[in-house]
Amino acid sequence: MRAVMMHSPGNVSVVDRDDPIIEQQTDAIIRVAATCICGSDLWPYRGANDVHDAHMGHEYVGYVEEVGSQVSSVRPGQFVVGSFMASDNTCEVCRAGYQSGCVHVQGMGGIGTQAQYARIPLADGTLVACPETPDADLVPSYLAASDVLGTGWFAAVAAQVGPGDTVAVVGDGAVGLMGVLAARELGAERIIAMSRHADRQALAVEFGATDVIETRGDEGVAAITEMTNGLGAHAVIEAVGTQESMMQAIGSTRAGGHIGFVGVSHGQEIPGNRLFRSLVHLHGGPAPVRRFLPDLMDRIASRSIDPGRVFDRTLPLEQAADGYRAMDTREAIKVLLEPFAG
Amino acid sequence: MRAVMMHSPGNVSVVDRDDPIIEQQTDAIIRVAATCICGSDLWPYRGANDVHDAHMGHEYVGYVEEVGSQVSSVRPGQFVVGSFMASDNTCEVCRAGYQSGCVHVQGMGGIGTQAQYARIPLADGTLVACPETPDADLVPSYLAASDVLGTGWFAAVAAQVGPGDTVAVVGDGAVGLMGVLAARELGAERIIAMSRHADRQALAVEFGATDVIETRGDEGVAAITEMTNGLGAHAVIEAVGTQESMMQAIGSTRAGGHIGFVGVSHGQEIPGNRLFRSLVHLHGGPAPVRRFLPDLMDRIASRSIDPGRVFDRTLPLEQAADGYRAMDTREAIKVLLEPFAG
């Protein structure tokens, strides 16, 4: 089969790779209907993480091809969505809703879903099947559920967004935009998107942002403070992962407020005394997408949300390198790859 | 009047000081019935914070002497308990239960309650009166409510301790011990106190600890992990404030679990990637004691809790320097000072 490989920072190509096979009887093999490039894939692309001939990709939707003998919840032919973290969904941590901290968790990044086929470990715990094959126009939305929607949703839930809240969203990447959508769905009254890019601002407004702020850092904090009677937002979504973005989030949250942070942390050192004085709640990490999948898939099926709008470019898998470039230069917000196109 | 002054690290004496007067019409003046030395007073005593001729003390119970014209909720003669943070208790942040983040907050530490009299700002929002003058043996418990009990209680609430939980408590000072008591009252099934001192271990058990661990750091984390089937505790109370104690707390908490941190942060730098991977909830800061006072005072009045047991030494105010020495050397857990003794 064909699969994406990142040879070194900035150097991506599509290569031949053996088709995946059932390795454990709890595995499923899927034919990937759609996959995509994640903001987190840009960290190694930009040299912020080491990378050497790595299989890429952890987001996916597709059709079940084959299942191991111990798989009972999905069967060949079904259209399935799965989290970017494989989990058993039965352990105590999973049952508490933290499938990304499952005692048997396996990151799909190590497997690589930017490919024509993918092996999904712990298929019963990881995959959720659609009742029937979805209309083609819904496929991007289901793909979003696999990571960015689930992650943005988790951020909003972690920030305890509720009816009437003022929510600030730090980060205008796909996850931040999905955070805006989640905040709207969870009843936020005012949603302040922090973005400097016209295309992302427009999408943020489409997803439910009521205000857009172009400043960042201390200036961004001052703007949020002013918009909230000096108190700060009830809830802040941190969807970047840098020191600046985290400090901006802490500074923008009122005493007793909540921060949901989902940007993959890079070089952050959170000053304890600043956190102490802030009296905020801080919760985040790799999103337990599996917790939210059934609900999110229902909302997609009923067309009450349209997260697939976050994909502003679709390419054949063979052109993955162009997709990485477009996301790196911010020409595209998020690139969908079609493994069997062309 | 007589009042404690810390001249420099390690150098405490009792000096003459002007009696406080009503400065704002929202003030009350109280005759201090009992005050005490806080673990946080040891930071400057040990030179970890700058100090020069500072008035000391922020914990207090006493009798109202005089009130400003705008004070309506307490009157002269009443026995009152107040938080170590004065608050209006009416602003939006107070109403959300974060009186320590009140828009008009004033720390009592700057006023100094290790004295015969004290001015309490924002008396209506800060003080809670007992329905009648309490029995003398309950005074230490009411005094504990002013800070250490309220702070330990907040830590347990911030850590979302609930029925059936396994709770670990990092720190065996007065606040940690009050955290043990709070965890028991909130229904925890297993309470693991981390302590190396026999006297504190005994008190922890009296307050409800079911297990005591003497190890700390990585060894302490390993012990908690082993006791919790490899998962970590549901809830962890961090009542120290050092880098080691915070990392111990993060390491001891299961994915999706909660940390309540109330140790005054000193030099902490929390690595974002560690926090991200841990999937824990982190919440803490200066406790909004006022939120809990009515409930805690009811529990004390009905003798269902006995937090006053945390005071293992009582001295006349004039011997405050001995009290500081005893706490610094860990001869005493917490020292109660009687301003009108002897």
From TrEMBL, chains A, B:
Keywords assigned: Metal-binding, Oxidoreductase, Zinc
SUPFAM superfamilies: GroES-like, NAD(P)-binding Rossmann-fold domains
Plastid is among the record's keywords: no
GO molecular function annotation: oxidoreductase activity; zinc ion binding
Domain of life assignment: Bacteria
Family matches, as InterPro entries: ADH-like_C, ADH-like_N, ADH_Zn_CS, ER, GroES-like_sf, NAD(P)-bd_dom_sf
Domain Enoyl reductase (ER) intervals: 7-337
SMART domains recorded: PKS_ER
Gene3D superfamilies associated with the record: Medium-chain alcohol dehydrogenases, catalytic domain, NAD(P)-binding Rossmann-like Domain
Cofactor(s) demanded: Zn(2+)
Pfam families recorded: ADH_N, ADH_zinc_N
Family, as annotated: Belongs to the zinc-containing alcohol dehydrogenase family.
Protein name, entry field: Threonine dehydrogenase-like Zn-dependent dehydrogenase
Organism this protein belongs to: Gordonia humi
